[in-house]
Specification:
Layout (H helix, E strand, L loop, with lengths): L2 E7 L7 E8 L4 E10 L6 E3 L4 E8 L2 E10 L4 E11 L5 E5 L4 E6 L4 E7 L5 E8 L14 E6 L5 E5 L4 E8 L2 E9 L6 E8 L2 E6 L4 E8 L2 E9 L10 E7 L5 E7 L3 E7 L5 E8 L7 E4 L5 E5 L5 E7 L6 E10 L3 E6 L5
Antiparallel strand pairs: 1-2, 1-28, 2-3, 4-5, 5-6, 6-7, 8-9, 9-10, 10-11, 12-13, 13-14, 14-15, 16-17, 17-18, 18-19, 20-21, 21-22, 22-23, 24-25, 25-26, 26-27
Length: about 350
C-alpha cells in the first residue's frame, strides 16, 4: 500500500514551504512530490489522526506555529490559524492526542510554548516556559531548547542543547510545570530523545556525536552508557541530528551531518547499543529521516544538497541493505513525516 509523506523545509532557496509525496513500495519510488502549503521555513511539522497538520512558520520579523486542515487523499492543506510573536522561529512541534495540546520548542529564545487545539484545528497560546543556562562549547553560550514531546508515562520531556539538560514537566490547568532537571555530561549537546519503553530512552548528542542510553523512572533520568555515532578517525565537523527507533524496538538509527551517514545500532537484551553499520546517505547534511510503516524503507532528506535518498531496510537485521536511489529533488529538506509511519 502506498504511503503519504510530508516534508518540512527551509525556504531560503527554491523551496516554497511544505511538500507532500507518495512512497510506492512496489516500485520503491517516491512520486508526486508537490508543494501543498506556501509559507516560510516550515522546518518541523506533525499531524494528528483527525486531519490536523501543525507546522513551524516564519513570517517577516515574526514566527511561531501554524495549523492546517489536511486531507491526505486530495493533498489539500487549508490554513486554519497562526500564532506568531516577534523573533526567531521554533524548531520542534509535538501533538498530545489525549489532551488536544500542541507544544513547541524554540532553540533561539530558549522557551517551550503550550497551545490548546480546538476541534477545527485552530490554536490558542496558553503558556510559555523560559530557560536560562549555558555549556562549555561555543554553541552553548545560552540555553537552546531543541525538542519537547511526551514520554510513555505522559510526562513532557524537553531537551536543552545549550545547557546539557533534560527537563521533565507536566501540564496542569493549561500551564507548564517543571518537575525535574537531569544534567548530562558537559558538552554533550543533547538534541532529540526516543523511548524504547517506559524505563529506557536514548538521547542523541548533536555536539558530541554520541548517543546516551538512559534509565528513566518517576520523571528522572540516569545515564547508563554512551556510544559514538561516527568513527574516531573522523576529524572534520559532524553534528548528529535525527534519532529514530524501529517499531519492534530492536534497532536505533541516527543521522550524522558532516560524516553524512545513518548510524545503525542493534539494541541488545539489556538495552546496550552495538553499532552494526554506518551507511553513506549520498547527500550533504542529512538533517532528518523516517521509517515507513512496514519498516522496509528508510527515507532521508538532505538540507544542503536538496535531494532525497531511499534505503531498503531489512527488518530482521536492521541493516540498510540497499541504497535504492538518491536523485529525487526536495529543496532544503529538513523534516520527513510519514502519515501513519514510524516517525
Amino acid at each position: 500500500m502506498e504511503e503519504k509523506i510530508l516534508f518540512g523545509t527551509y525556504t531560503s532557496k527554491a523551496s516554497k514551504g511544505i511538500y507532500s509525496g507518495t512512497l510506492d513500495p512496489v516500485t520503491a519510488k517516491v512520486h508526486d512530490i508537490k508543494n501543498i502549503a506556501t509559507l516560510d521555513n516550515p522546518t518541523y511539522l506533525t499531524t494528528d489522526d483527525n486531519g490536523g497538520l501543525y507546522s513551524i512558520i516564519k513570517r517577516g520579523n515574526e514566527a511561531g506555529v501554524a495549523s492546517y486542515a489536511y486531507d491526505a487523499n486530495s493533498g489539500s492543506a487549508q490554513l486554519k490559524s497562526t500564532v506568531l510573536a516577534s523573533g526567531p522561529a521554533p524548531c520542534y512541534v509535538a501533538y498530545d492526542a489525549t489532551k488536544h495540546l500542541l507544544f513547541s520548542a524554540n532553540y533561539h529564545t530558549a522557551d517551550i510554548k503550550l497551545y490548546r487545539v480546538a476541534a477545527d484545528h485552530t490554536l490558542t497560546l496558553c503558556d510559555t516556559l523560559h530557560r536560562c543556562g549555558h555549556g562549555p562549547r561555543p554553541e552553548q553560550q545560552s540555553a537552546h531548547l531543541h525538542y519537547v514531546d511526551l514520554a510513555p508515562d505522559g510526562n513532557l520531556i524537553a531537551v536543552d542543547l545549550g545547557s546539557d539538560q533534560l527537563l521533565t514537566l507536566h501540564v496542569a490547568d493549561d500551564r507548564l510545570i517543571l518537575d525535574h532537571v537531569t544534567d548530562l555530561p558537559a558538552g554533550f549537546g543533547p538534541r532529540h530523545i526516543v523511548f524504547k519503553d517506559e524505563a529506557t530512552a536514548y538521547v542523541v548528542g548533536e555536539l558530541s556525536s554520541q548517543v546516551a542510553l538512559l534509565h528513566y523512572s518517576n520523571g528522572r533520568f540516569t545515564i547508563v552508557a554512551t556510544y559514538a555515532t561516527i568513527p574516531a578517525s573522523w576529524q572534520a565537523h559532524n553534528g548528529a541530528a535525527a534519532i529514530r527507533i524501529s517499531a519492534d524496538k530492536k534497532f536505533l538509527y541516527v543521522s550524522n551531518r558532516g560524516y553524512n551517514s545513518i548510524a545503525v545500532f542493534a539494541i541488545t537484551a539489556n538495552n546496550q547499543l552495538h553499532l552494526i553499520q554506518n551507511a553513506n546517505t549520498a547527500g550533504d547534511f542529512p538533517r532528518d529521516f523516517a521509517l515507513d510503516s512496514t519498516g522496509k524503507f528508510l527515507l532521508v532528506a538532505h538540507q544542503n544538497s536538496d535531494n532525497l535518498t531511499l534505503f531498503r531496510r531489512d527488518p530482521a537485521t536492521g541493516l540498510l541493505r540497499q541504497r535504492l536511489w538518491h536523485d529525487t529533488t526536495l529543496p532544503q529538506g529538513v523534516c520527513v513525516h510519514f502519515i501513519g509511519g514510524n516517525n
